[in-house]
Amino acid sequence: QVRLVESGGDWVQPGGSLRLSCTASGSGFSVDHMGWYRQAPGNEREVVAFIAQGGALVDYIPSVKGRFTISRDDTMNTLYLQMNSLKPEDTAVYYCNLVPPDTQHWGQGTQVTVSS
């Protein structure tokens, strides 16, 4: 069974950048469509970015398009999210999971805080 562990979250000022990582243990990572999700206080968890198996197809929600880049390294069983030009509204706990998400794979997430 795949276990997902997110890392890389931090506090940054508006306009700053962060790179999140999601490392998968176990087998099966490379055959899955993957995504980054986030949940801000008082909000529902939402998908932020999607990457297909193999990495050829990606997609983003409109509010992060042009600022965030999702990528994957299947040799390292790792998913990445490069976040640039961060805004206060990007503040949330970020999670990785399959697309569609598997409830058994939600990890602890990693906190991203954008404020001055």
Describe this structure in words.
Strand 5 (46-51) and strand 6 form a beta hairpin. The strands form 2 sheets. Strands 2-10-9-4-5-6 form a 6-stranded mixed sheet, with no helix packed on it. A 4-stranded antiparallel sheet has the order 1-3-8-7, with no helix packed on it. With 116 residues, it is an all-beta fold. It is built from no helices and 10 strands. The mean pLDDT is 94. The protein has strands spanning 3-7, 11-12, 18-25, 34-39, 46-51, 58-60, 68-73, 78-83, 92-98, 110-114.
Q: Give helix % range.
A: under 10%
Q: Helix- and strand-based class? A: mainly beta
How much of the polypeptide forms β-strand, as a percent range?
Answer: over 45%
Biggest sheet layout = 6 strands, mixed
Distance N to C terminus = 40 Å
Side by side, the strands of the main sheet go 2-10-9-4-5-6
Task: Give the structure's gist in a few sentences.
This protein is mainly β. The protein contains no helices and 10 strands. The protein is globular and about 40 Å long.
Summarize the topology.
Blueprint: E1 3-7, E2 11-12, E3 18-25, E4 34-39, E5 46-51, E6 58-60, E7 68-73, E8 78-83, E9 92-98, E10 110-114
Parallel strand pairs: 2-10
Antiparallel strand pairs: 1-3, 3-8, 4-5, 4-9, 5-6, 7-8, 9-10
List keywords for this structure.
116 residues; 47% strand; mainly beta; 6-stranded mixed sheet
